[in-house]
Amino acid sequence: DADVTQTPRNRITKTGKRIMLECSQTKGHDRMYWYRQDPGLGLRLIYYSFDVKDINKGEISDGYSVSRQAQAKFSLSLESAIPNQTALYFCATSDPGTGLTGELFFGEGSRLTVL
Amino acid sequence: AQSVAQPEDQVNVAEGNPLTVKCTYSVSGNPYLFWYVQYPNRGLQFLLKYITGDNLVKGSYGFEAEFNKSQTSFHLKKPSALVSDSALYFCAVRDGPSSASKIIFGSGTRLSIRP
Fold it and tell me: Does A108 sit within 8 Å of B41, measured CB to CB?
């Protein structure tokens, strides 16, 4: 089983609909992240959380919200989806014990299409 | 602000030839640099990192990266390319000196190895 699991893997929805992408991890990491990938733009950080009570905006948080339900779960919501939110979304985790040297562990991605 | 740039959208190499994927960085203070790889329909995987020490860093799958402070570069290299190396490669940097810093990604370079 994957250490970082994202659901759904693919989703097609319509403009204005509410969408939730879920992420769960078995790595025991405190830190979790949501990134968005667009061709030619690399990965951009949407939100991140360093523990259950800590939520921070990334560089492109407008139109998104998150919930950290438990150490292992971090959900991303689009309250009213719009077509330019069509993208590949990644959840990632990291271990704060490794400080600045630690790397990110990624899920397999959730492909969202907004019509 | 800390950033990385990947000047090439695509790199094409014949199997068996050496490959280089370029990355330049802009940081204040000590750079913490990373390379990640993304295979089709998969999440990103950590390849290697530079924190301090030797300028030549060895990583997974036979890849290595050369840190050059005077040229502010961190190019990814492999002496002999394999078709299976074909993937999307991302250079990344920590965006600050504290343990609360985040990883910022470049725009990615698609590596294509022809048989």
Answer: yes
